[in-house]
Amino acid sequence: MRTWLVTAILLAVMVSPMLTQASVLEESGDNLRYSSPIQATISPSSGWTSGGEEIVITGSGFSDLAFSNSTYDGINHQWAKSTANYADQSGQENSIVVDSNGHVHIVSAAGDNYDFIHSVYDGSSWSVNSIKSCEGSYCWDTHMVIDDNDHLHAAYSTGNNYIIYMNFDGTTWSWSQISSNGKVGPVGIAVDSNNNPHVSYSAYGSYCGNGLMLASFDGVDWTSQTVKSGSNRGCSSALVIEDDDQINIAYQNRDTSKLSFVTGDGSSWSSAYSADFGNPASSMYPGYYSSMAVDNQGQFHIAHYDSKEEDLRYSTGVPNGQWSNTIIDSGGNTGRNPAIAIDAAGDPHIVYHSWAGWDLKYATLNPSSPDWQVSNVETAGSVGDSSSIFIDDAGIIHIAYSDDTNNVLRYATKNSGVSVTNEITVQFGQFGYVTGEVVDDSTIVVTSPVASQADTVTLSLWDKDGIIEHQLSSAFEFISQDDLDNDGVLNTNDDCPNDAGTSTQDLTGCPDDDGDGYSNSGDAFPSDANENSDSDGDGVGDNADALPNDASETLDTDGDGVGDNGDAFPNDAGETTDTDGDGVGDNSDAFPSNAFEQADSDGDGVGDNSDDFPNDAGETTDTDGDGVGDNSDAFPMNAFERFDSDGDGVGDNTDDFPNDASETVDSDGDGVGDNSDAYPNDSSQTTDVDTDGDGVNDVNDLCSNTLENAVVDANGCSAMQLDADGDGVEDTEDDFPLDATQWLDSDGDGYGDNWGDSSWNDSRMSEWTGVFITGASQADYCLDIAGNSTADGYFGCLDADGNGIADLFEQDETNETDTTNETDNTNQTNSTLDSDSDGVPDLEDNCPYTIPGRIVDANGCEIEDSDDDDANTILDGLLSGDNGAVTTTVGIGAILVALLALLQTNAVAAILPDTFRWVQVLRKNSKLTKEERNELTYLQSLVQAYHSNPEELAEELVNLKGDLTARFTNNQIKKETREKLLVLIEELQSSTPNELYQIAHNDAYFGLSEVINTGERTKLLDEKLAMGASEGELNQTEAPSAYSLGELDDKGTYWLEWPEGSGSWYYRYSPEDDWSIYQN
Fold this sequence. Notes:
Elements: H1 2-15, E1 33-38, E2 41-43, E3 46-48, E4 54-58, E5 67-72, E6 80-85, E7 92-98, E8 104-110, E9 115-121, E10 126-132, E11 139-146, E12 152-158, E13 163-168, E14 173-179, E15 188-191, E16 197-202, E17 212-217, E18 222-228, E19 233-241, E20 247-253, E21 258-264, E22 273-277, E23 288-294, E24 300-306, E25 311-317, E26 323-329, E27 334-342, E28 348-354, E29 359-364, E30 373-378, E31 383-391, E32 396-403, E33 408-415, E34 418-428, E35 433-440, E36 443-447, E37 455-462, E38 468-479, H2 719-722, H3 870-879, H4 890-902, H5 906-909, H6 914-917, H7 930-946, H8 950-969, H9 975-989, H10 993-1000, H11 1014-1031, E39 1047-1048, E40 1054-1057, E41 1065-1068, E42 1076-1077
Parallel strand pairs: 1-38, 3-38
Antiparallel strand pairs: 2-4, 4-36, 5-34, 6-33, 7-8, 8-9, 9-10, 11-12, 12-13, 13-14, 15-16, 16-17, 17-18, 19-20, 20-21, 21-22, 23-24, 24-25, 25-26, 27-28, 28-29, 29-30, 31-32, 32-33, 34-35, 34-37, 35-36, 37-38, 39-40, 40-41, 41-42
Helix pairs in contact: 7-8, 7-9, 7-10, 8-9
């Protein structure tokens, strides 16, 4: 391309009159233009017509005119690896950048609490500083970028739905919460041209979240916007902002199994591009753990993981253009958590984790090969579960990664082999064009061309596109004189006027084959540009001779000043002598005069070869050979014994009670030492008398006659003896010791504080005692006063007339329709007052002034119009037991009552579809407490987040078990809640991956969807049996129940034969879908 461009320019110069134009910027017919002269100096300002003179041009603004030329050295550079941080689990969720000073910065999470730390390498050593602690139970996927001021910007998500941003200004760290409604998982971060940060994440929701979000900082405040809405999409996002502040986001649309890409200016967004997807959608699940970068040509590069095929994939393309996709590594469950970076030549470099061997792997695409080159960075132990990559301006690759075997943060680096030079086209008047190197913005180095004659010419610089010519203010003179050998040296100055040469050191203008400045005749090495003298005459030039004045030595490989011939360790600068001849230099030999010993690892003065414990300074000898040093061995002469924990003189292995100094023997094996055992040879008894057999002697037993096998406390009392009604409150503290639903009567009126009617929930004052308990007996409706009311379940309120009805529910009503006794002030009406005639008595009417004729609910409040059929709402109310629905309208009520009566006959029910008969049991029943629902919802979130990663799920479940036990011990959750969760956790730990997938998509498994109770299920079963004979072939045409799981094939499709043995098959793609019949 560049050759073509130069040719075009030459042709244009030959046919264009531009050379005669004034130095004013203007258009010409062939688009070549002049600019005003550039002020510059040229050194030297003259040279021979033979050309080849190196010229330095000094000025300004050269960088803007230059074009880049990338080269690859083709060297197989090797990784240099080291440990950056030895803190426990310090490599988790890491991200790496390099500042303008070449300092390496790594932010990572360490320890079980995910505390964030900042590790910095200044070129000589690592320093580590703490940043902050994690907001939740875990923090995930730190991403970091560095701005033009060397300030660090990082973001991550937490297990409690926070999105957190952190900033390092070069001195201190600060942080802020930018969202409390984020989906835990990978986030993206980038800075714009003003160095303001932007963070992409997924809104909280099931699976992949509830839409793609972008949070932006304007220098003062954070604001968030929805980029792409919709369920099950927006997770695993990666963010890149271009120089013109165009925002580009790659994210996963798990709902359609796509890696999507969207671009915009922050206020308007393009349609989502499908960068990668399966055909059909279930053939692969791309877009997991996306990492994205853009090269200098505006080409985007995305590394991501296909969780279906478990491959590392690579997608590249441009907005509104074609995207291509490549499988980089399909070597078995590989490609997790990839990170990508682009070098100066625009070539991608990717690091990622492989579960096949638990290795950290590296893949790149460069000019040395047309194919992806995949290799291992490190394979020792389990490494690379978290990794990140950065390529600095010098082309050096930096990688941070976790070592989960040693629980440390590791660092690897190597040269990418890519170098970039900035070049420019320089025109020497009519003598042609040459390419110069732009050293920096003010310096150009160029070699003069051959001139056909002596002349003074104006030099010009052409811009990178070959369109604009920039003339220089200085000229260059080509000189031609009598030069018989045409070597550029005037004959009068030429020591070899008849032989062309370039020598300048010993002679001028003489042949110098190696070009080192020394003439061939005066050069001891005329063919070696690096040598010209051999002072000691050993055949090795002085420049290469480490000891140029010692003919017996030429090399000093280790540079220690001792020649290799006389150095016992020629490759070790730290050693020259080995006195005892054991192969270890005296400087490193702890025992330089003892050939049998070289090291003393623990520094105890005893060599490792003679030391039974070479790494323990406190031990040197193990007399009895039991692996415990004599100094630590309580029985150094007895290999069978090492410890005497209770100090009774009997070794732990022999002592039946190693932690009890008062006991050593248990002759009858009953767990009680002979010294304390009243019957040391009778394992059936240890104490004198225990009448009720509860394990507590009668002397110490406060509760006699305990039931057989009952669990008792130290005083011999069982829970039943302490708590007769089993409600968890001991009888001494229980106001209702025989009623398990009540235990407190705060106002002393004989009615309990607990209630069982959920409609009371809103009326209970916060300062009142008592809790909601299903079936609570004789619940006190008025806790703030002792009362005697009993009617309609409203106990404990004031009832002045003693009729059982609480005073607050009684009204003074007169029979306005009775005009025969106007002087009788007594209440002679038996009807209930309904002021607004809506069918709901005023006593139960929450809206007593409803406009006549309006449809109301059971509480007497108007029902808003909706798109649903009113009849369906009323039917639902009737079937759910809602008394208010009967009052809606007489006509519809009568019809529905008749319809429900009709459903009692098997003959009519047989003609109805089975789904309609289910309507009789649609009153759902949930037995969960609020605490249980919260814990089960969190457990379901864990399964949904990690069901595709069983090992991470197993670790999360173990952590959750410990958390539950800790909170139970601290009285933060109830025993029943903990036991229920532990049962589910044990089942999940033994579930297969297929079962985990089904469980993750089934709310009923966690008890979070409504279920029917036992009585309703029994009633339904009886009805189905009674109707079975009448249904005939009707069920043959019904689709299977949505709760039927079916069998999952290897392509992600569920299949079910329905009815069984019928040959009719149904299919669906996920447990949430309805079944569709397979037409074949």
